[in-house]
């Protein structure tokens, strides 16, 4: 006997409700009593009912899809997996599905946004690595399309975002280095076009001005540079640094690159130099000697963005969804 795919009518017959009531309950309509929605969801699960998304889109104009535009970059290991996991957790059980739209290096970041808008492929967008006056933000605001950014911009028109306070991170990291006795401070910044570059620099320079210490910001490499380039830069420049010196590392890859290079050159961590790294994964837990570190929770950022985009697609004001996550003390990973 051929398998017959369950339909809304099948669920309606099982629950004794009208097809329209079942349809609205499965869409989690607040006009349907919570107990009814739970009963319909349980029946649908038991029957193996899966919505026909093509028909649903024709009927409602909605895709029930949230798209994450993801640019592959190596500075933050596990960034994509952690963010996807957080978003998936937020969307679980909501009837919305998450799709991943790649942003290819070397191609305009606006292209994936235009493609999704033109083809109506999602009800909401999420993307990261924002620029000061990000073209993606501008086009989405003009289109009135729901979106959340991982990072802020300098636009006067407000938009929804979840961001990490990189100003506070850089300041706290630099203060740790000062307390460890460093007599010179350094930092490797991301490319200047990214908004978080400005915040990292603001926090770092605030600590520098307070301390009056000399500082070093390389102009030949950035956080987006290959690890080998960062190693070469520090191999060439460290000889002129007074001891002990300290470096703020806004990512794990740069921290590993700098530390390994300095150790290879005969410098002793904890005596000749100190690093404070932004930790976003468990990678640094495996490294010895242990790093001083401050934590950024990418999973939580994904979860918060998922929660925000669900409300935005239902018309919530963007000003209610501007979240600035604070650095988390990571004393378990601090060097003795």
TrEMBL record:
GO terms for molecular function: DNA binding. Pfam families: LacI (PF00356), Peripla_BP_3 (PF13377). It comes from the Bacteria. Keywords: DNA-binding, Transcription, Transcription regulation. InterPro entries: HTH_LacI (IPR000843), LacI/GalR-like_sensor (IPR046335), Lambda_DNA-bd_dom_sf (IPR010982), Peripla_BP_I (IPR028082). This is LacI family DNA-binding transcriptional regulator. PROSITE patterns: HTH_LACI_2. Residues 6-60 form the HTH lacI-type domain. PANTHER family: LACI-RELATED TRANSCRIPTIONAL REPRESSOR, TRANSCRIPTIONAL REGULATORY PROTEIN. The keyword DNA repair does not apply. Gene3D superfamilies: 3.40.50.2300, lambda repressor-like DNA-binding domains.
